[in-house]
Design a protein that fits this description.
Blueprint lengths: L1 H6 L1 H4 L27 H4 L20 E6 L2 H12 L11 E4 L16 E6 L19 E5 L2 H10 L3 E2 L10 E5 L5 E6 L2
Parallel strand pairs: 1-3, 4-7
Antiparallel strand pairs: 2-3, 5-6, 6-7
């Protein structure tokens, strides 16, 4: 079982819960996965019992985060301007990918970073948050040294400040991108 814990170490060392933050990460607080220290797949309760625990575990790496949207190029252009990541060749209105600073993960670049991509969906509907008929399924937290100083650039690129701001300490602020996905600027490094 120690091998399984080691394989899940990146998940279990996730950012601690931030009181009042709209998306909690309870992993690492002992009980983040329904009272278990392990996610369901590792504990065997999600898809059957685990076998071959003596075998060297394979630890997946996050390769690509994909956001659905009505126009992939438009949303990629927004995030490219925001994060200063270049648009990969071949991107268009149906599919667009941004290259992270050290490049994406490839056989030639196994130490690369997760990339951000966008795919056009014909019947795309803007997420609603908090609650609503089309709740958000994912959000991005982007670290900045000073939220107030970063906000004018975010707004100039096409983001809007979300009307619901759950942070009482000012440690994060919620925005929506041009396709309506909530994202946060987090006061960090």
């Amino acid at each position: 079982m120690d091998d399984v814990l080691l394989a899940w170490a990146p998940v279990l060392s996730a950012r601690p819960v931030v009181a009042g933050h709209l998306w909690h990460s309870a992993a690492g607080r002992g009980g983040g996965f329904g009272g278990s220290a392990l996610p369901p797949a590792a504990s065997g309760s999600y898809g059957g019992p685990m076998e071959n625990l003596e075998q060297e575990p394979i630890t997946p790496r996050l390769d690509l985060i994909i956001l659905d949207c009505p126009d992939a190029m438009e949303l990629a252009t927004f995030y490219s301007g925001l994060m200063r990541w270049p648009l990969e060749d071949g991107s268009d209105g149906d599919w667009a990918t941004l290259a992270p600073p050290r490049g994406g993960i490839t056989p030639e670049n196994p130490d690369g970073e997760a990339a951000l991509a966008f795919q056009r969906i014909d019947d795309y509907q803007r997420p609603t948050w908090p609650g609503g008929s089309h709740p958000q399924q994912i959000h991005l937290d982007l670290s900045v040294p000073d939220i107030d100083a970063a906000e004018p650039q975010v707004l100039a690129l096409g983001a809007t400040v979300h009307e619901h701001q759950p942070s009482t300490s000012g440690s994060f602020r919620v925005y929506t991108d041009p396709a309506g996905h909530p994202f946060c600027l987090i006061r960090g490094a």
